[in-house]
Amino acid sequence: MSVTKHHVMIKGVKDGLVFLLNDACEWQDLLQELQHKLEKTHQQILTGPIIHVHVKLGSRDVTEEQKEEIRSVIKQKGNLLIQSIEGEPRKEAAAEEPVASMTTVKGMIRSGQTLHQEGDLLYLGDVNPGGTITSTGNIYIMGSLRGMAHAGIDGDDKAIIAASHMRPTQLRIAGIISRSPDEWGIEEAFMEFAYVKEGKMEIDKVHQLHRLWPDSNLKS
């Protein structure tokens, strides 16, 4: 009976052997090939004194019963001593960790111009009246915001808009539009940020940002 030999790879390492098991093939095909290599094709490197073996399962989810099946097959070679049987972290589990992305852009946005950015945006420059700056994440402007800014443009109402000098023609976060700056009760707004609270846009000083994000990972 022929066996397609690509499900099991056996590699020599400093302290023994590593068995790399394909994590996408059928389980019975895997066991069959493992048995075949132990008995037929790899006898030369599997004979002799005690050999330590580490089994790598890839991203395959296996039960304790399946691990025991692996142990039973390998133990048939009396000199093979299993040190570990382990898998890798699942890719989707690793993807659950949020990855912060910040893009820095320098320049000046003039009337009639629009700048759009995916993720968080740090803009070093002024946004003049008639200019527009948009982002799917947060917008931080190290300069004057005198045009229109729209953060969380894809619907993220947790986004904020901050600016060194906040005097916009309009602010938007997700689908929420700010009141006119004339209604803020602030003559000149320096180092302010806009955020959404209970469905309404609020304005506060940048140094109060930690209250909005109490779980910040920033360390002194």
UniProtKB/TrEMBL annotation:
One of its GO terms (biological process) is regulation of cell septum assembly. Residues 8-85 form the Septum site-determining protein MinC N-terminal domain. Transmembrane segments: none annotated. Residues 105-203 form the Septum formation inhibitor MinC C-terminal domain. It comes from the Bacteria. InterPro entries: CAP/MinC_C (IPR016098), MinC (IPR013033), MinC_C_sf (IPR036145), MinC_N_1 (IPR055219), Septum_form_inhib_MinC_C (IPR005526). The keyword NADP does not apply. Keywords: Cell cycle, Cell division, Septation. Interacts with MinD and FtsZ. Cell division inhibitor that blocks the formation of polar Z ring septums. Rapidly oscillates between the poles of the cell to destabilize FtsZ filaments that have formed before they mature into polar Z rings. Prevents FtsZ polymerization. HAMAP family: MinC. NCBIfam families: minC (TIGR01222). Belongs to the MinC family. This is Probable septum site-determining protein MinC. It comes from Paenibacillus ferrarius.
